[in-house]
Design goal:
202 residues; mainly alpha; Methane Monooxygenase Hydroxylase, Chain G, domain 1; 71% helix
């Protein structure tokens, strides 16, 4: 059963504190030595900091949601699942599906502002990564090696193997936010490659 937070609960207090801490201009402050423009700029600087904190928090929520969905998917496809009786397995799947459906009701989206060159760079990066997914079916070992070379381009500490210069060049043209998302996508692919290898050994 869902219970909405009552006034005075931690959620209500948190929201109230945020509202109280937002900066305001006191138009009746005749003692201020700052010009109206300076006071406006000071307020906007503070508001910009709040906006960046909001974006950072929303981005973290977005990551948490994706991590939850990935974990739920891993649970549903775990090898241990096939050791259960069919009825028990169906129960577990229904439970996991219900949680996943609940998780999907949460939508968090942080838009990234890009110029034309950054759009083109991101398109090129995504095109190269999509090529890995396609190559996975025909040559998983080569695809994994290529994925590692892409991952090395995202980090100052190389995992193993070589760095793909073409991928690095395209990645450097992307925004910082996009670079972080690309790195997370590659980490997810590497995890998937490792999972495939374990399954093939069984």
């Amino acid at each position: 059963m869902d219970v909405d937070p009552m006034p005075g609960t931690s959620t209500g207090i948190s929201t109230a504190l945020v509202l109280q801490t937002l900066p305001k201009i006191d138009e009746n402050d005749i003692m201020s030595t700052k010009s109206p423009k300076e006071r406006f700029l000071e307020l906007l600087d503070l508001l910009e900091n709040h906006v960046e904190k909001l974006r950072k928090g929303a981005s973290q929520l977005e990551e948490d949601r994706d991590a939850l969905l990935s974990t739920l998917d891993s649970v549903r496809n775990a090898d241990l699942m096939y050791e259960l009786e069919e009825n028990d397995r169906d129960d577990i799947h229904r439970y996991a599906d219900r949680i996943m459906s609940r998780c999907l009701t949460v939508e968090v989206k942080v838009l990234t502002q890009r110029d034309q060159m950054q759009e083109e760079a991101l398109f090129q990066v995504n095109h190269l990564i999509d090529g890995l997914v396609i190559a996975l079916k025909s040559d998983p070992e080569t695809a994994k090696a290529k994925c590692i070379s892409y991952m090395n381009a995202c980090s100052s500490n190389m995992v193993q193997g070589i760095m793909d210069k073409r991928f690095e060049s395209a990645l450097l043209g992307c925004t910082v936010d996009d670079q972080k998302k690309v790195k997370r996508r590659l980490q997810g692919l590497l995890h998937y490659f490792d999972k495939l290898k374990v399954q093939s050994l069984q």
